[in-house]
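cron nightly-structures :: item 1 of 1
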Amino acid sequence: MATPTNQAQEIITCDLCAKPTRKFCNNCQVSLCVECVSKHVDKLDSLPHDIVPFKDRKVDFPECEFHSNQRCEVHCQQCDVPVCLKCIVGVHNGHKVKDMPESFNDKKKELEEETKEIEFTIIPQCKKKNEETESKISITRAECDELETEKEKLRKFWHQEVDTIFNTLGSLMESLKENHLAALISHQSKINNCIPDMIQTVQRNKEILKSKRVFEVTNHKSKLAAFRNMPTDIDVKLPSLKTNIAQGRELSLELGEYKVSLTQTTLSSLTGEVSYLSLQKLLEQAKSITTIPTGVNPLYNVACVGVDEAWVSGKDKTIRRVDIHGSVQDTVTTTCKPWPCDITVTRQGELVYSDVINSTVNIVRHGRTETLITTPQGWHPAKLCCTKSGDILVSMCTTDKSQRKIVRYQGHTVKQEIDRDDDGEPIYKGGIHTLRVVENNNGDICASDSNADTVVVVDKSGRVRFRYDGTPARSKESFDPVHIVTDSMSHIIVADYNNDCLHILDQNGQFLRCVDNCGLDNPLGLSVDSEGRLWVGLCESGEVKVIQYMK
């Protein structure tokens, strides 16, 4: 314990600067030089201040909790508690002690340094690590997405029989994604949980610093060491997707410890086999069975109903059902402006038509017309296809016709949109011509893209399988694909308006035959009846040719 003589010899400095102390605030227990008195009073102007000469200071010593009516004038440095004179000669005998004012000032300085380090160093470091972890989460998600994309590109080289392999692969990747993200999110949560406690500690420390109660300051327990010991950084590393793809060799695929392999059958041999089977079903020469006068001129659309009837439409608001002899069996008058864009028939035999201006797809049930689909704002329905599953494929275009896409509807609900390839490029070309669409037996979606003079076929997931530009048919005029259909053998049949013929392809896009011997002048509408015959609508004459082309 320092003697009064020793205390007098020591230079006690101002708590706000380094100058010698001359004044003391009894209320705040702060040592002050003359110049800092006004600063202290102005800074804490909401509190009362008792400014006295330093020698007249009154230290607010705490009462001893063990000895009544005894003040704790010193602080035991060994036990870190305030003690009275009786304590010094008792349980604290021999312990090193410090005068309470000196201990008070030392503790306040320690508290100030601690608060500054937490507020200006540790919290910013913690927030920075939080941002870094957030970045790692984003990168991990992106890498997982890249792995998923790479997996799907590799799928093209494998047969449909190995879908189970890719499903397993997908599950593993999803599990990897979940585990890695869970670890990172957990790490982030630990970091986030530290910040509120730090902020609360800073606020509490600041309150203590403002306090004039010695006991609160001297009893403060530092959390600095715990805050410095932040959660250890973690890092995640995804396994790479390895593959060995070579025509005619064994194919292998690896993701971490998951490994699969199989022998590849070349695409050309598969294509040749399918093409051979398709050719066996085609007649050497297609033949025209009959010519039906419809009275619709020009004739745009044909949709077969059963065996000997078809709905037909053209450049007016009326849709007519004619039989194979040309007799009109029924009519539906629409409100379409200027006319219905396309017509099709459901598996139940109900007529469906599209109204471009009103942006609706309508169905006729029991003689009454109902709105089945309303397309999104800015998009207009064009050509239609009713699938075997009961869905409706609708080709759409924007108001300015700059974009086109195919949308699958299940009832009123959008089930699928097909508009971009794996590289994000448009699959179909924008332009003034409509995009005609049909679904094949294997789930492929075949489209006649008249703006690109190309037939585009995508698989059921919407990935491009192939494009056909008419070159193998060696036609005189440029290929001009219009209406398109498929048949029971999965043939793809497209009308070529410029060359007055039909192109017949197998399901893999191999050209099989050209039907150009049946007087097909300006063929436009196209449909297949339940007996497998083609009904070809001739635009200029308004006639329908019924053609037998398969055995």
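cron nightly-structures :: done
The chain is about 25% helix and 35% strand.
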